[in-house]
Amino acid sequence: MDLKDQIREQALKLPKDELQGLVAELNEYLISDNSSQLEAAWEKELLKRKKAHKEGHSKPIPWSELRSKLQETIDGAAS
């Protein structure tokens, strides 16, 4: 059994609240470690989409339509 499997096995023995705390700490570590890279990637993507919209290469969707589609997806996933 490798270290990752040992850690997983031990973590799953923790009470739920302690496990949730551990997951939150690990997630925060991962996010903070990559935050500058993620921010740069999001900024690049947003600028690309803004340019495409201004040049007429994208079709905007009204919020009401998007909200309905999202709700249908959520409802379909719940059943």
Can you describe this structure?
- The two termini are 38 Å apart.
- This protein has one domain (3-78).
- The protein has 79 residues and is mainly alpha-helical.
- It has 3 helices and no strands.
Give me the secondary-structure topology:
Blueprint: H1 3-11, H2 16-54, H3 63-78
Key terms for this structure?
flat; mainly alpha; 79 residues; single chain
TL;DR?
The protein is mostly helical and 79 residues long.
Query: How many structurally independent domains?
Result: 1
Cα-to-Cα separation, first versus last residue: 38 Å
Structural class: mainly alpha
Quaternary structure annotation? single chain
* Mean pLDDT reading: 90
Give the proportion of residues in helices: over 70%
Largest sheet: none
Percent strand equals: under 5%
Name the overall outline: flat
